[in-house]
Amino acid sequence: MSIELTPDLESALADAARLQGTTPDLLAEAYLRERLDTLRRESSGPEPKNLADFLAGYVGVLGDGDDVGEANN
Known about the structure:
By secondary structure, the chain is mostly helical. The chain is 53% helix and 0% strand.
């Protein structure tokens, strides 16, 4: 894959790479990898803290009307 950059982006990438002691190619790859991993994590939602969080939306409790707080009519 190749990506065409505008001259200003190419210059900014080269400057940033020089400051970090790396190549523009490696810096661009690292940035894309980090950004795409962040997007993937954000789209998948927060990490579940426990089993109940993990299963939320998939499990529940069905009652027969005798549940606490339910009125019997």
